[in-house]
Specification:
Layout: H1 2-20, H2 24-42, E1 48-56, E2 61-68, H3 74-93, H4 99-103, E3 107-113, E4 119-125, H5 127-133
């Protein structure tokens, strides 16, 4: 009798664990909601006026946009090419960009935008590029 109860309890425990596990698409969606509600409103960095996340569940991709007060010119573009990757690395270290999602195959397209919403710099984070990026 106790053996039968133990088997049922173990079976229920396994089913509960499987149900509670989230797949990558659910984690992607959860990250986007969390980012926009908690990280974005309090995000502070030089020249950044706004940041938002947008998820593309079917493509397995997240787009992060960093809007700045910088004009689109060569000097700002050159500065962005060196400073923006440092900001992204810091965000990965702080888990504001989750390494786990990237390692699970989610691609992050990260844009650093001028005050007219043109691209100053763009970085693409994938499982492959993450290794080179964090060096």
């Amino acid at each position: 009798m106790i053996k039968k109860i133990s088997q049922i309890a173990c079976s229920l425990l396994v089913v509960l664990m499987l149900v509670s596990c989230k797949n990558t698409k659910q984690k992607l969606q959860e990250f986007v909601v969390t980012y926009n509600k908690t990280i974005a409103p309090s995000f502070r960095a030089d020249n950044i006026t706004l940041t938002t996340a947008r998820g593309y569940i079917n493509d397995g991709k997240i787009e992060l946009r960093f809007e700045t007060d910088l004009e689109q010119n060569e000097a700002n573009k050159s500065a962005a090419v060196t400073s923006f990757p440092k900001l992204i690395k810091l965000m990965i270290d702080k888990d504001q960009i989750p390494r786990q999602l990237i390692e699970e195959g989610v691609q992050f397209d990260v844009y650093f935008l001028a005050d007219d919403n043109t691209v100053l710099d763009k970085e693409v984070l994938t499982g492959e590029s993450l290794k080179d990026f964090l060096k």
